[in-house]
Amino acid sequence: MGLMPRRRPRGxxxxxxxxxxxxxxxxxxxxxxxTLTLLPLVASFPLLPPFGLLMLLGWRLAREDALPxxxxxxxxxxxxxxxxxxxxSAMLFWTLAYISIDLFDARLVARDFWQDWLLATGGIAxxxxxxxxxxxxxxxxxxxxxxxxIAVSVMLYPVAALxxxxxxxxxxxx
Length: 174
Hints:
61% of the residues lie in helices and 0% in strands. It is built from six helices and no strands. The termini are far apart.
C-alpha cells in the first residue's frame, strides 16, 4: 500500500473532469495577440490595429462564457505593458468595451455575424477614440490616422473572429 489514496474510477454518470488547457486558450490567445506589437514592422503611418482587443472581442462575441467579466481588466494590463499606451488605458477601455457589448448582447434576442461585426466596431472605435484622447494632446491633428486605424481594425475583425473559431474548433456545435 502506498501513501496516496486510490482514486475511484469515474462512473458513467459522473461529470467529466475539468481540463485546464481549454479554459486558458482564450486568455492566452488574447495575450499572444497583444504581443504582436513587438514585431519589428516598419510603417510610415502607425496603422497597426489593437490585435489583443480584436481577439478579446472575438472571444466575447463567439463565446460569451469563454472569459469572465473581469478578464479584460487583467488582459488590458498585459496589453498596457507591451503597447506603449499610458498605463491603465487598455485596462479601462477594454473593460468598458466588454461591458458595453455585454449590455447590448443582453438586449438582443438573436444575433448574426453582421450584428457581431457592428458590436465589435463600436467597441473598437470607442477604445481607440478614448485611447487617443488619453494618449495625445488635443492640439495634435491625428484624427485622419485615427479614422484609418479604426477602419483597418474593423476590417480585420472577421479575421480575428475566424482565428477564434479555429482555436475553439473542438468545441461541440450548439
